[in-house]
């Protein structure tokens, strides 16, 4: 796992100790949920594996769901930082929407195929499918914020005249994001750069033959 | 649950008894997996709930995975038969691709929102996310055959000049099927007829502004 860059000013010893415990707890939580699943992961198990007392965990988090959610947010931030150090949390805007979407989806392909990400993510996603409360928190805390980056990029493209004004960006993004998500989650097909490039081309240009304007909309 | 139409010629008593047991076993398997999840569902539990001996189940199926998979195939067939009695297993071809896709997706919306379907389907889908063998069987036996119906319909539309010749139908169908699947599985947004109609319009016509042909492909 990539280390976060340390602050320029040295932190006091107690802060550094806390940071070290927090990292150990996140690592233990992600490893455990990947190995035994969400149901069988416990605060006790996380504490034992991280080498901290149970009370250390309860001081910072109310439940195992909270620890795990924070551990995933941290994992995603680490992955993003490793892919593009110091990057802004936005989809690049080079003025070429297709190229920008393809670049971000290729980075997502790399992330989905990374075992450090895949194993715990599958465990949390599976729990979210059957456990509505966990599912909704997973979406609100992790999935929706990243989807909103596509909304912003598509809105900018509408402003630049690249996307039709009548299109709802929140639905439009699903044309390329959801196929990749389903192939990964349900293993309905292979995942590659060529595949995500194709999704972007189809979503932007449509699959209908040119001039077949039967259901052309505003 | 809808009864299958009985054969015109009366079946012998032993066949009718077998059919009754088979239905009871399917019903018990689906109810149990919805209540306690895939992991905790056992052949013993299914047998007890169905009021049959364990050996009756083992005579017909090798494992709980086999029973459940068959129970789901049967559930899907019952749902399809209830929606359109005597229908062919094909997507209608009225010559209007958009209308045909919208009609099928509206029927899928109804199925996904039916609790009799939703609860056991979520349990099996969740297991498939973390259990690769179950996931792959679920796709091969249930998901991919229904996706192939879209492939056939899109191929016919290519033949009729409605869809661009260079488009890969197996990828193209994901532009409208996968968003619905993800909203259902991960609860990333509401599901409605208006939503699936919009997906079809976007997928056919694209979201790019007309004349923005930067990445127009063959």
TrEMBL record, chains A, B:
Pfam families referenced in this protein's UniProt entry, alphabetically = TetR_C_11 (PF16859), TetR_N (PF00440)
Q: Which domain of life is it from?
A: Bacteria
Oxidoreductase in keyword set: no
Q: Which residues bind DNA?
A: 42-61
* UniProt domain HTH tetR-type: residue ranges: 19-79
Q: Does the keyword Electron transport apply?
A: no
Checking Gene3D superfamilies in the record gives: Homeodomain-like, Tetracycline Repressor, domain 2
GO MF annotation list: DNA-binding transcription factor activity; transcription cis-regulatory region binding
Q: Which UniProt keywords apply?
A: DNA-binding, Transcription, Transcription regulation
Disordered: where is this region?
A: 1-20
Q: What is this protein called?
A: TetR family transcriptional regulator
